[in-house]
Amino acid sequence: MAAAAGADVSQRKCRVLLSCSLLSNLFFLSYYHLYHFPKEGIALGWSRGAASQAEAVGAISCSGHGSAFLDGVPVGGEGCPPRCECHACYAGHDCSELLPDCPADADGL
């Protein structure tokens, strides 16, 4: 009976220590999270910023006859959004204009 009572007290001590450890870890992690990061929120990392720029360039419509590239030459100088780079035989700001004297015009046969 004495051995069982000693084991019961030992289990109770372990439970109390585990509970205190969990609560103190929760306190310190919440303190770190609240006071370590800026108040306006966590700033975007370079990968998230690059992903949002790539999404914006991917949303540019080039009529299926061109492509917009993030690392392309910006028309209008630095800081301007990328424009469509048209395939051969197409022109315009969205590559929708077929050039009349194009040698690859299959409809002209």
Give an overview of the whole structure.
One of its GO terms (molecular function) is carbon-sulfur lyase activity. InterPro entries: Alliinase_N_sf, EGF_alliinase. It comes from Colocasia esculenta. Residues 46-102 form the Alliinase EGF-like domain. The chain has 109 residues and is mostly helical. The protein has helices at 2-36, 46-58, and strands at 66-68, 84-86, 90-91, 97-98. The protein has a two-stranded antiparallel ribbon. The relative contact order is 0.08.
Task: Outline the secondary-structure elements.
Blueprint: H1 2-36, H2 46-58, E1 66-68, E2 84-86, E3 90-91, E4 97-98
Antiparallel strand pairs: 1-2, 3-4
GO molecular function: carbon-sulfur lyase activity
Pfam families: EGF_alliinase
Protein name: Alliinase EGF-like domain-containing protein
